[in-house]
Amino acid sequence: MGKKEIVFQERMNRHHDELKWLYTELYGNSDMFAELCSQMYEYYKARKQKLHNRDAKRAEDPDWFRKKDMLGMMLYIDNFAGNLKGVREKLDYLKSCNVNCIHLMPFLDSPEGRSDGGYAVADFRKVKPELGTMEDLAELTDACHAKNMNVCMDFVMNHTSEDHEWAKRARNGEGEYMSRYFFYDSYDIPAEYEKTVPQVFPTTAPGNFTYLPEIKHHVMTTFYPYQWDLNYKNPRVFNEMMYNFLYLANQGIDVIRIDAVPYIWKELGTQCRNLPQVHTIVRMMRMIAEIVCPSVILLGEVVMEPEKVVPYFGTIEKPECHMLYNVTTMASTWHTVATHDIRLLKKQMDIVNGLPKEYVFLNYLRCHDDIGWGLDYPTLKSWGLEEISHKRYLNDFFTGKVQGSVSRGELYNDDPVTMDARFCGTTASMCGIESALYEKDANKLEEAVRTDLMLHAYMLVQSGIPMLYSGDEVGQLNDYTYKENPSKAVDSRYLHRGAFQWEAADKCKDTDTVEGKLFTTLSTLEKVRRTESVFDADANAYTYDVKDNSILAIIRMKEEERFLGIFNFSNETKTAWIQEEGTFKDLLTGKKFQMKDYVLPPHGFVWAKKVK
């Protein structure tokens, strides 16, 4: 037995019994389990030597992704650089942004006009032709690894496109393939599902089933009619999707983002969300990765409050996802921008800071998706704010309809029945840079830039991994040209998915420009973050009461090091009532001062460290 075979066998021996037990509990099929194990070995053998070396190196440092130097950026390949080869040519720019993990938004083959932004996959082994090939992807990941950069991609395992080979064969009436989805020849069972399963897009895609008149069957489509839910009760589905998972990992992907994790398992009479079998599947994925490609980590997309997503981390003994999104804190942040009231955000951060430090959250201000107002409404109600009216206020504020609002954006899935809607817009446009430039108001522009930087500074102080959205580093504005494209016009999320403005990036070193002010200050903040020990994953973090509900103060401590971040969420000059002994140094300017009743300009902030 060669060295590689020995390594594989050692890993398999470590996990075999639990993996077999979980698989058998779920499927009761020993033949399919044997096939899975056999195929795992084939994908292990097919893994390139460079990736085997990467696996071995990261085995010596399993917490590599928890380091304070981690900084991600999510981007659309076509918007950013045309295609995969173009991204490879732009890696130096990404390095200049201090980014060491690039999240490539969905790039697998999907039908034009029916792709849901690439989340309706027609072929898990093929890149969209206009973006390149799998060989281009492998070359890009190799180039990234040479520059100590990681690559993240989306693995959409809840559903396939109706153009996927399985779906086509199912539509032709082949029972083997129909069993890979949820097909019903009458509406009786779908009607039962509809009694308990919430709608994801009640306006643009109402209901959870789609009728196919050509075969007189209903098929489950939780998201859009062209996205058919996979039936994970069928072991063939699980096995084949794991083979796709390993194939993609073998292209050099470092972080696999599991899309829509809570939806993976469906059960009649439930909400089809967060069922126990989902955790079984994710746990098996974790073990499969640790056997075949242990340098690959799992990022779970679970859209719930941090304390409720915790089960998706698994346990110390039986871990599931390595990282999860901190969605609720993002929504609470923009709520705070609109209300100038930090109480909800402070409560949210206290909860996150109270969780075990082993839990790694991915933090962001903005992502490719809409902003849904999934807030803590019981708490807000205790403060006199009702859910429906407050959501209306937030949407009116960010669309610029509230007196004094400088934000610009558009609603997404505006439901006239529930009066619910989500919001779309770039960070810069939400902060007022767009409206200030339009009005040619220098004072408004100065405050808008300060707001943008304050929010990024606050995001960078949070424990976990910060993730930037491509274009935010240079203040990219809303792109209204999406309305001219018939395939995009109905989806306002394309408002903040515009093509990257390279002419803006050309100004990133000129501090007399908006682009330069944002880029250079962000760069300074990022460099401070990766050098100061208070940003270590095991550092302690707390909120600090400064006797003003519009000012958020955060303390970070590591051994003798003490850091204070203070953020003014109001549009007025404010004093943070604070009494800290000793001298502090502003980490951006180097200026030393006494931390006593610190005055902040509207939407201002300070990062300060106690001088020994």
For the biggest sheet, the summary is: 8 strands, parallel, barrel
Secondary-structure class: alpha/beta
- Strand line-up in the sheet with most strands: 1-2-5-11-12-13-14-17
Number of strands: 23
The backbone outline, from C-alpha atoms, is globular
How much of the sequence lies in strands comes to 15-25%
Distance between the termini: 58 Å
- Please compute the radius of gyration using only Cα atoms: 24 Å
* Uncertain stretches of 5 or more adjacent residues: none
Determine the mean pLDDT: 95
Number of helices: 22
- Helical residue percent? 25-40%
How would you describe what is shown here?
The chain is of the alpha/beta class. It contains 22 helices and 23 strands. Strands 1-2-5-11-12-13-14-17 form an eight-stranded parallel β-barrel. Strands 18-19-20-23-21-22 form a six-stranded antiparallel beta sheet. The radius of gyration is 24 Å and the shape is globular. The protein starts with a helix and ends with a strand.
Brief summary:
The protein has 612 residues and is α/β, with parallel strands linked by helices.
Q: Which key terms come to mind for this protein?
A:
single chain, 612 residues, alpha/beta, 8-stranded parallel beta barrel, 23 strands, globular
Write the layout of secondary structure elements.
Elements: H1 3-27, H2 30-46, H3 49-59, E1 72-75, H4 77-81, H5 84-89, H6 91-96, E2 101-104, E3 108-109, E4 123-127, H7 134-146, E5 150-155, E6 159-161, H8 165-171, H9 175-178, E7 183-184, H10 188-196, E8 209-212, E9 217-220, E10 227-229, H11 235-249, E11 255-258, H12 276-292, E12 297-300, H13 306-309, E13 323-325, H14 327-339, H15 343-353, E14 360-364, H16 377-382, H17 387-398, E15 410-415, E16 420-424, H18 427-431, H19 433-439, H20 442-461, E17 465-469, H21 502-505, H22 514-531, E18 540-544, E19 551-558, E20 561-568, E21 574-586, E22 592-600, E23 605-610
Parallel strand pairs: 1-2, 1-17, 2-5, 5-11, 11-12, 12-13, 13-14, 14-17
Antiparallel strand pairs: 3-4, 6-10, 7-9, 8-9, 15-16, 18-19, 19-20, 20-23, 21-22, 21-23
